[in-house]
């Protein structure tokens, strides 16, 4: 582990890049070598994009800047990595969910497919100095949710309501 902000975000970035790569692999039609290259390019692009916007002491700071989003427009970081392996934006829209939000924050990577989908946690680690680590049990049910239909109509999602 090196010093500085850059060294601390490797796990979060590699988790996020692996997730997008898995979505591409599940859609089919992209070779393993291309997928490996895509993942590396995406990790590099994210690292470059986030390096001055990573605040482990205030994990939510800069969250909007680090959010990866596909919403009828292709996220530039995904678009750039895809361009490196010759995938057009049109092709990406066929392969990836049309509505995808991926939050890459210190200590937590989570995503939502569809505007009304539930938020699923891909990676979570206790924050140094945090009193209690959040329990993940209630959220494990959505781990495989990304396999559900590509068009993600909101009707197929059950909203999880949490009452206090």
Architecture blueprint of SSEs:
Blueprint: H1 5-8, H2 10-27, H3 32-50, H4 63-66, E1 68-71, H5 76-84, H6 89-95, E2 99-105, E3 108-113, E4 120-124
Antiparallel strand pairs: 1-2, 2-3, 3-4
Helix pairs in contact: 2-3, 3-5
How would you explain this protein's 3D organization?
A four-stranded antiparallel sheet has the order 1-2-3-4. The protein contains six helices and four strands; from the N terminus they run ααααβααβββ. Residues 1-7 and 131-161 have low confidence and may be disordered. It is 37% helix and 13% strand. The chain is of the alpha+beta class and 164 residues long. It has a single domain (9-125), classed as Alpha-Beta Complex (Actin, Chain A, domain 4).
Integer average pLDDT: 81
Structural class: alpha+beta
Helix content: 25-40%
Strand portion: 5-15%
CATH class: Alpha Beta
SSE pattern, N- to C-terminal: HHHHEHHEEE
What is the CATH H-level superfamily? Anti-proliferative protein, N-terminal domain
Low-confidence stretches: 1-7, 131-161
How can the largest sheet be summarized? 4 strands, antiparallel
Strand arrangement, largest sheet?
1-2-3-4
Write down the overall geometry: globular
The counted number of beta strands is 4
CATH fold category name: Actin, Chain A, domain 4
- First and last CA, distance: 40 Å
Number of domains: 1
What is the level-2 CATH architecture name? Answer: Alpha-Beta Complex
Oligomer: single chain
Total of DSSP H or I helical runs spanning 4+ residues = 6
Rg for CA atoms: 16 Å
């Amino acid at each position: 582990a090196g010093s500085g902000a850059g060294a601390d975000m490797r796990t979060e970035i590699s988790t996020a890049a692996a997730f997008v790569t898995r979505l591409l692999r599940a859609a089919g039609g992209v070779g393993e070598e291309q997928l490996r290259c895509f993942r590396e390019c995406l990790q590099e692009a994210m690292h470059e994009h986030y390096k001055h916007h990573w605040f482990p002491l205030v994990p939510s700071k800069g969250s909007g800047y680090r959010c990866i989003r596909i919403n009828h427009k292709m996220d530039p970081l995904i678009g750039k990595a895809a361009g490196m392996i010759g995938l057009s934006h049109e092709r990406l829209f066929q392969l990836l969910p049309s509505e995808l939000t991926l939050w890459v924050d210190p200590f937590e990577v989570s995503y939502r497919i569809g505007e009304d989908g539930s938020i699923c946690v891909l990676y979570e680690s206790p924050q140094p100095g945090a009193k209690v680590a959040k329990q993940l049990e209630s959220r494990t049910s959505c781990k495989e949710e990304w396999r559900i239909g590509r068009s993600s109509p909101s009707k197929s999602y059950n909203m999880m309501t949490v009452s206090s």
